[in-house]
Every structure is written in C-alpha cells, then in structure tokens.
C-alpha cells in the first residue's frame, strides 16, 4: 500500500511517485542498496542531456541509488556486456510489479488522445529495447540511450516537450568492476522546475511532503524487494551457466566459426599483432591468417545492432600490450574494443554522435607516438568527426561538415611531415574531389579546409597516406582510388619551393594518352602554423579495367614504397616506382588474370575485390571478394612469387538451414545468399584438425530456405521456388573429402566426375573432367541456352590438392550435379525433411489456406509423389521431423498446432494422421524435435509464446499429452535433442531464441522435467535470432551446429557435467 499511496499522493509531482515506484520495481536492487546524496559537481550535471532539460541550472532534489552485486550472481551472458546489463536492469525497473500501479493509475486518469502509442503495459516494457523516443504511460520518455546508460525524462506529459514546472530526469546505468568482480547498478534521479527562475544558492523547490515520499519510496522499495523478490533472484540464478550444481562443470568449446565479410571498402583492418578484424553482418570477426594451426575465425564480437561497415585498429602506444579496435556501422554507433594478449575482447565504450551510418574510420599515420591517439570517422550524415582516445575513453574534438556537401566514403589522417608539423586530413566520397583539411596543432587539432584536389571523374573510394622515405625530411604521398578506374598520387612537400618535377613543369605522365580529365600540375598551398607546404599531382596509375575499391601503402624493409590496389575487375595489383625513371609500374598482379572469367555471377567471378590489406611484415596480402570470402597470398622469397594460401569463407546472409550427413561426417548449410556449402574437419593438415569449407555444392538464383541430407552422398534443398532439387556428390569432391578429411565413399567410382552450370541456367549439369592441356571453347549462350560456363570447367588435377580448396576453386569446381527436381507445391518451399533410412522426402510450402498447407511426400527410388498429401495445417508448416525410427512424422506450423502422422504398417511409403493439437501453443510454433528412440513418443515444440513444451505418450497412454514446459525470456526459434542419451540416461535438449541465446537443458527421461540448464556465454551467443540447431549424429564428441540470422554458422563442442 505504501508504494501505491506514494504514487497517488504525488499526483502533481508524478515523477516522485514514479521514482518511488521504481525503487520497488528494481529486480536487482535488494539488501545492501545505498542511497547516496549526489554532489553538484557530479559529471552527470554537465552532460548535454541534463543541460538541455535543465538549461538554467535550477536547483534539484538529487539522489543516486547504488547497488553492488557479485558477478557470480549475474547471468553469464551479462557479465562482460555493460550495455546488455544496463538494458536488463532497465527492464527490471519498468517491466516489473513496482511500476504496475502507476501504469494503471495513468491509464485510468491521464490517457489523453495522442498517447495511445505510448507503452502502457509492463509486459511490453519487459521486452523493450528502450530506444530514444520511447514514451511510457504519458508520463515518461526515453531521451537518451547510450547503451550503458539510459536517461528517462519524467514529471509531465511527453506531449509537452518544452520546459516544465514539474520536471525531472532519471539515469539508469550498470557497469562492471572486474577488479572487485562486481556489477554496480546506479539509479540517479534529479527533480527540478525547469521553467522557473531561481537564485543559484536557492534550495530545490520540491515540497517537503514530496521530498519525504521520494526518499521513503526508495527505502520501502528496497525493503519490499528484499522481501518479495527472493524468488526472482533465484530465477535469475537458474538462468545462469552456474544455475545448478549439475551444470557448473559443463564445458562449451568453439570448434568452428564461419562467417562472410560485409562488402564494404573500410570493413577490415590488419593489426600489428597479426589479427585481421572484419565486419560480418552486425558482428566483428577476428582471424589470424598466419596461425600455424589454420583455425580460421576464432572470435565473433557482439555489440552492434546493424551492419558493421568500418573497422580500424588504433596504432599501439609505447609499452601498450592490448590492442584497441574501433568499429562503426549502420546502427550509427561507434564502438571501442579492447583486445587483450590472452585473446579476450570487450567493448569499453559506445558512442552515438553520428546521426547516420558510419562509413569509414581513419587513424593517424605518424612516426611519433603522441598523435596516434587521434582518429576520425566519416558518416552518411555528411559529417566527419575528430576524436581523441585518452584514458581508455574517446572524446569528440571537432565536427566537420564538408562544403560542397558530400557523403564521406573514405578518409585518411596523417602528420603533415615526419617531424610532426601539424595534422592533415584527406576526405572524399560521393563527389569526384578530394578535400584536404589541416590542423596546426596535434595536441588540440582544429581542422580547416585548405585545398580541394580535382582530377578524378567518379566517386573516390579509398585514400591512404605514406611517407615516401625514412628520412625526417621525407615528403608525404597520398593515394586516391576512384570508380574512374585510376589511382592518383599526390605529393605533400614541405616548404615554399615546389618539388623538382612540378617546378620544372614536367608532365608526370610523360606524354602518355590519358582518358578523362588531363592531369594538372597546379600546386595547392597549405599552411600549418608557421610552416608552408605544397600539394602537387605526382602520378596516374593505369592498369585496372573496372572500379578501384581500395589502395593501401606499405613500406618494405628496403625502404621501397609499395601500393596495393584492389578492383572490381577481379584483380589486385602491387605498384612500385621504377628506381631509374620514377614511373609507377605494376610489379605483381594477382587474382583472376585469365579472360576466361565466366559469364554468370553464379561462378563468383563478378563483383571483384572490395578491399585489400597488407600484413604487418608485408609478406602477405588478403583481399575480400563478392562472395564474402577472404583470399590470401604469401610471398615466397625463394621463388620470388606470390602464392595462394588458405583463407576463410562463410555465408553473407542469414543461414536458414543446416543438416549433418546421415553419418555425421560433414555439415551442409544453406542461406539467403543463395548458396549451399559443405563444411568438414581437415584432419590431414594438422594433428588436431581444423574445420573448413570444403565444397560449395549449390550456387543458385533464389534464396534457399531449407536442406536435408538423404544419405552420405546426396542431399535435397528447397528455395523460394515451387520445387525441390536433389544433388549427387561428384567424384572430384568425394576424392577430396577422402584425402583431406578421411571420409570414404564405397560408390566413388560410380559417381559423375564433376558438375558445371549453364550460363543462363539454374541446374548444375554432370560433366566429365578434362585433361589439363585440353582447350575449352568459349560458350555462346545466345546459340545454346545449355552452354556450359568455361570458367568453371573442372580439370582432372584441379582438386588433387592437399589443402582445403581456395575460393576460386570453391566457387567454380566443387559444384554437385543436380539429379532430380521434385514438383507439386504451389508456393515457395518453407521446410523439408528426409527419413533416416533415406527413402522418403517430406516437404511443405508457404501457405495461407488448407489447400496449400499440405505436406507432400516423395519416394526416393523413382522420385514420384506419394498421394494423397497429408492435410493438417491451415497456415504455413514451419518444420517437419521424422522420428528416429521413421515410424512417425511430426509437423508444426504458424497456425499454432502440431500434428503427428504414423507410418502405415502395410505400405512403408504411406503415413496416416495419428493425433494433432490445434492449440499446442498460444502463438505460432517455430520448431520441433524428437527425443532419442525409446518406448514412448517424446518430442518438443518451440513457440513464439516464449515456451518450449515437451510432449509424451507412454506405453500405457492413449494420447500424446503435455508433460512439461520450459519458459524462456524471448520467443524460442530453434531446438534439437541430442540423438543419444547421456551416460546417466538423460535427454539433452538445446534451445535457441530470437534474441540469439542458446541454452542446453538436461531433461529427466521419465518426467521430462528439466534437471539443469546451461546458457552459452554472451560472447558465444548469436547476435540475432537462432534459426536452426542440429546435434552431430554418431559422433564421439557432442557437437552442436548453430545457424544464425547474423549470417554465422557455428559448431560448438559440449561436455556435460559428470555429476
């Protein structure tokens, strides 16, 4: 009653009632909470948000409620993520019982027209992301969300955005004290009159009664929480990885991480420690190309909520051991990460100053350490921001708005000279110019535009600075790469005198014919303090046939300056200046040199290379292609050659389906990127083995939605088309799997040699491999629609290799020939399943009526449909699963029901309805799975209603009934049973949610009650929804494959507790 009475009494000062209610509503704030009076010098009162809503600095009633909680009591997925911890804290405040009374009072007495879009229910707030602009019960509004701190305005209706007599701010934050192993929760409140005028020494104008209720509300809130939320605290404990003693010893290990890179020029960087960081969907992947174990990607950093476009390492300071990584993307957020030498990584700061996508990041190129902490960001809000990192925190120094307006696509930052005479910033993007800004002071840089470099005909995609020589008086060289197919070099020279070539009026091109604008020898003058500099055009680099996406400098051990350029013409080139003439020439050209590049995007040939990177020692280069895969070349000094080496690859869009081969020897994955990929463990290359993409069986023209293996050398897939396609393994891939992975196939001699794709077709055709010296005639698709792409011709020796295939072979030479097409559905395929004995394929399509929501069965002997189709659903079926013994077929759908069909005892190809439940869940069912074979029927279903339900029919039961339920915090999107019981006879059930959390439950075989649960750590969770889970069958180790909406494919090992 006390809290409700406080809420009522404070009708005028609703903020007080609100804060009092909040005190009771804090799920985390129990015994040990401290109410701390805040000093007026607290940094909070100097923030932009506080000064905006209390611009006159009027006196306020201020408090800070602080709670310290041991990290051991916090869910593991929150222990290393202050943003997630703050969000859950905020949900606990607003989405629990303490705020419920005020929602009801406001709804009854203060819900005017215009407030109907506010959040009025605590259940809604318990799931909210509390984004800026969220309004609650016509009384509260989120005015700032910095990730680790959320500020809410209160005291009046959000429909009155101006200054108010009744006003206030509440700041909710959480931070992690790693030294003390504590989570520190803070709830700051400030109540004030923002509209009035008060003397600086005046007391706050809050009435004594309200002041009393304010503090009393917090105190009673703590007492009530201590009494009433013990159960809730226990529930929080149960959700953690250490939830039960039985789960504490379980171990989760990373076996394989596969992701494709986002196709943006600034998406990757190679650190001094040898780590390549690149954006993949909304995550940041860390890869060590020169890892001797060839383990590929070892870490995926979560934090961004949208596509990551810009990634940059900050140069290390003197004596610094950890690496600092800066990332930005479409979520407008700038994130600072700290990478420890041990391999651990954490986000130390999130900044949201830009108002549009962050496209590029530049760090200071310097020979001195004191300027290396300055960096710049460019965004689609047509602004460039200058930052400094001090004490582990980035602060904004300046915002630049280029004139004429353009969207920065690339920026470069450097000392003006080797001795550090100020800073220079080059910026370019959606215009054909490069703007040059100069700051006289590196300590407090304030950039001013001093030159505009013209010459390019199209947008400029890449900029990079380098000092020409090692001497202190060396000139600075800027490379600009453009969509006009050329790289231009610009010389920054110290002094009033021009460089020799420009002073003599020499033509840098030496009379060569140049398309487009003629290069100009006009000298641009710069001023940095008392120092004078000039910019002159140095050289034009011709050699690419298409857009140039990136140009990166490297100074080798001999002091020679080299430039790496990557282009949409599928090549990368290394340029050097000829020692005698000074003319820039191509010394190395890598990529697809041949004109035999193919005529279809399905071969992976078009789209080119999006970015290129030098290794720290210059002995290796990597480049990103259209398929999201990284190609790598190593320099061999003995042969003076650049040789291809193993890179990494992965899907570039949501992974929609995964399937282990029936014996568990390899894993198939399919995606909205229109590819099917085969992954297996390379055991011949190292003692422990490492996972790689070994083949790319299907490259399609439609988004692929589902897949299942039929046997050890056959699979079926369904896409956004009305048919399914069946593929057979070719001999070339079978031999490759045998040689690299030890996977044997007794039918290998009966398999077709390889597959190729018609230039204008979607069906892979079986072909014979040709001899190495045989010439292949160019295809003419106009004369023959079935003409094969010569670029993907398979020669007999191409896959006779002792390492996983490189990207060019994957996309050309590892296709599987198509064996059959299965017709019958009227709309796009939604799901399919094959029986364990490989004799039946079941499928369903997208549907809004009973006629189309049927399940069609096909036998695999003659590939004919078994009629009539099975009818049960009225909307799209979302998952089909055969029981381990194939006696039953389970289907679930968007119509909230599940149905079980039983195999006919006389006709093994026919199934009959056994039982259905039209109200299996209260919202659509998204997945289902059978428990391992037993005397009973046992299966689980997962729904959008945040429930996992376990169903059972024992040997003595007549019907299938609900045996147990497992609640979840978010909609459950995927689940799967380990296909065998544990050593102590328990079931193991893995579940995945829309939030990306994966939980492994140990389930009692008889009661189906959960014995223990273990959540995967936050850093192991998927950044978006989990779309499918699949345990590896017949494996010595328990391995779980996870398909993510964040384009990731993961394989984790699971070792259950011995207790």
Note down, in words, how this protein is organized:
The protein is built from 11 helices and 66 strands. The radius of gyration is 32 Å and the shape is globular. The relative contact order is 0.07. Mean pLDDT is 84; it is low at 1-32, 216-248, 503-513 and 594-606. Helix 2 packs parallel to helix 7. Strand 31 (561-567) and strand 32 form a beta hairpin. Helix content is 10%, strand content 41%. It has 1059 residues and is mainly beta. The strands form 15 sheets. Strands 20-19-18-17-21-22-23-24 form an 8-stranded mixed β-sheet, with no helix packed on it. Strands 1-2-7-6-5-4-3 form a 7-stranded antiparallel β-sheet. It is found in: Cytoplasm; Nucleus.
Q: How much helix is in the residues?
A: under 10%
- Could you tell me the strand content as a percent range? 35-45%
Could you give the distance between the termini? Answer: 46 Å
Q: Largest sheet, if any? A: 8 strands, mixed
Strand line-up in the sheet with most strands: 20-19-18-17-21-22-23-24
Number of helices: 11
From the spread of the alpha carbons, the general shape counts as globular
Q: Could you list the spans in which at least 5 consecutive residues all have pLDDT below 50?
A: 1-32, 216-248, 503-513, 594-606
Mean pLDDT equals 84
Give the radius of gyration: 32 Å
